[in-house]
Structure formats: structure tokens, C-alpha cells
Amino acid sequence: MRKVLIHIGRHKTGTTAIQNFLQDNRESLRELGYVVPQSGRVKDAHHEFARPFQPRNAQQLEGVDDYRQLKPFKSLKTELALHDADSTAVISSEGFQNSKPKMVRAGFKDYQAQIVVYLRSQLEYLASSYAQRVHATQYTGTLQDFYRDVYQTGNHYASFLENWSEFFPNQLVVRRYRSTNVVEDFASSVLKVPVAHFRLRNAHSNPSLNSVVTLFKCELNRRKPANMPPQLQIYPVLPKLNALFPAPKFTLPPEIVSDLVESSRESDNEVAKTYFGEQQLFDYSRFPTHPESSIRDIQFETMYSALLKLLEVTDATTG
Questions:
Q1: What is the DSSP letter of 272?
Q2: How far is CA 126 from CA 122, 219, 261, in A?
Q3: Running DSSP on this structure, what letter comes out for residue 70?
Q4: What is the pLDDT of residues 15-68, one digit of tens each?
Q5: Per DSSP, what are the bridge partners of residue 249?
């Protein structure tokens, strides 16, 4: 039975960088016994494998008795038949994070599947998730709103891993996320290959907004100026404001830090013991905090003007 590594994220743990690495080094990895399928791809990720199993797409599975008959899985079987049977397929999509493990298992039932997941410090994860939600959508809520209404319902790492372990028993590879070396860690600890043999991109694959630009984008979402460009145009340009309006990365107020550390302690400790043989999953003692703040009108106008100029330059360049 062919082996397949399924990298499921989680979100905000360097998934884009890992996916870029896999696609950039397909030939070199193949020589080392790894196949990076082209089936199921959306850009550099394998989102088509995860998409049907996400709750919002459940209607796509109506009348489907065998998930192996879905187009991406049929294509995968055909593609892998062209490669040595001993090679291991490597599939990566953070979309699996919100997929149902039981369905994923059914889709990959013809393979000896192993799940790879990276966990990020709860405090970093909350800050980054909020900044990303504001950046990528028209979300207008405060950090407190996001923490209460969105984050607290899905930050229980132990339950998350238990759900996957139920359908992939003894087949979970759990790693701690470190922003400075996630690709190196994936190559050396997951694939067991020396990273020095591969081509790595220098640029940050998915740059985050700093604290000031995050506040600006949230305020932009609230105000919705009459001449506001579409979200799809704003998204790729917005990180360029980081250089024009430098600020620390987005951090959390002390009261949320205290509450999150306490509420996640039992779950994190369980994961640390089960998967790392340690007592503590992450060290939260040195996490920087900052009171939640807002952006002034004059600062908003200055930043909005700068954003429009960046968009004009971008349009002129691409046009």
C-alpha cells in the first residue's frame, strides 16, 4: 500500500512556505522517493483534496457513496500509477484543518496515510489569526470580539488531535511551529532529508500586517469609503504599508493573554505529554502585551491615501 503524507496545517503555521518548498523542489524530492502530486492543486497547495470535506461544502457530496470517485482522488490514483510504488506522496493543504477526519480517511482509504500537523503558540496564533481575518475579509470586530466569538471555540489542541487520531491511529506527526525554520523542520524532521539540497525562497510567502496596518484595515472595513477598491485588489498590496508605517507585529492585551493561557493550559499540557513527552507545550512567560487601541482619524486618512497610491502604482505596473 502506497504511503502518503498529508500535511493539514494548521493555519498560520507556515503552510504557504512549506507548499512553495514542495512545488519548487518536485524533481529533487522525486529522486529521494517523494512524489508531490499535481492532482488537486490550487496554486502550490492541494486544496481540492480538502475542499469537499469542509462543512460548508457538504452539499457537494450528496449522492457520493465512495469518496475515492471524486475527481481529485481519481486523478491522484492515475498520476501515482506513473511513479515507483515505494515512493511516498506528499499532499499539503491547510484546508484539511476544518475538514472531517472520517471523510478524509475514506478518501485516502487506499493509502497508508500519515497526518502531519504544526501547532503554534496559542498567543501567537490568536494574534496572527485576528490580523489575518481583518486582512483577508471585511471583518470589523475588535480583538475581544474575535477572541470571544471565533477563537475560543476552536483553540482546543488536544480535542483537535484526538479527532484526527481516531481515524488515523498512531499516524500523527505533531510538530511545534517556529517561524524562522518551519521549512527546514519539515524537510529534516518530517521528510528526513537534508534541507541543504533544496531551493528555498527568500521572500516571506504570506506576509502578515503589523499592528498599525491591522488597525487601519479594520477601520477601513468599518468605514467602507465610497471609493474603496475591491477586497481582492487591496489584499496583496496592504502588506506594503508595513514599510511606510513601521510598527511591531500585532500583540494581545494583558487580560486576553491571562485568560487564554489559563483556558488552554490543560489541553496544551495534555498535548505536550502525549506527543512530546514534556510538561509544557509552549513557554508563554515572555510574550509581549499591549493594550487594545484604535486608530486616529488623521492617521487613517494618511494611510488610506498611501494605500490608494500603492494601488495606482500596482495597476500601472500590471497594466
A1: I
A2: 6, 19, 11
A3: S
A4: 999 999 999 999 999 999 999 999 999 999 999 999 999 988 877 788 899 999
A5: 210
pLDDT for residue 203 is more than 60: no
Check: CB of residue 211 under 8 Å from CB of residue 250: yes
Q: Helical H runs in 81-169? A: 101-107, 122-136, 143-149, 157-167
What confidence category does residue 235 fall into, taking pLDDT thresholds of 50, 70 and 90? very high
- pTM of the predicted model over 0.85: yes
Bridge partners (DSSP) of residue 124 are none
Provide the grid cell at 250.
500585532
Residue 114 CA neighbour count, 13 Å, CB half: 16
Distance between CA atoms of 36 and 204, rounded to whole angstroms? 22
Per residue in 238-296, pLDDT (tens digit) is 999 999 999 998 889 999 999 999 999 999 999 999 999 999 999 988 888 888 788 89
Q: In the chain, which residue ranges form alpha helices assigned H by DSSP?
A: 15-24, 26-31, 47-50, 71-80, 101-107, 122-136, 143-149, 157-167, 182-185, 211-223, 231-237, 241-244, 254-271, 297-318
Residue whose cell numbers read 522525486 = 30
Contact 20, 203 (CB under 8 A): no
Listed in sequence order, the residues at least 6 apart from 67 whose beta carbon sits closer than 8 Å to its beta carbon are 52, 53, 61, 73, 103, 106, 107
What letter would DSSP give residue 14?
S
Q: Give the mean pLDDT of 213-232.
A: 96
Spatial contact of 52 and 96, defined as CB atoms under 8 Å apart = no
User: Would you state the torsion angle of the CA atoms of residues 125, 239, 140, 11, taken in this order, to the nearest 10 degrees?
Assistant: -30
Burial of 236 (0-12, 13-18, 19+ CB in 10 A): exposed
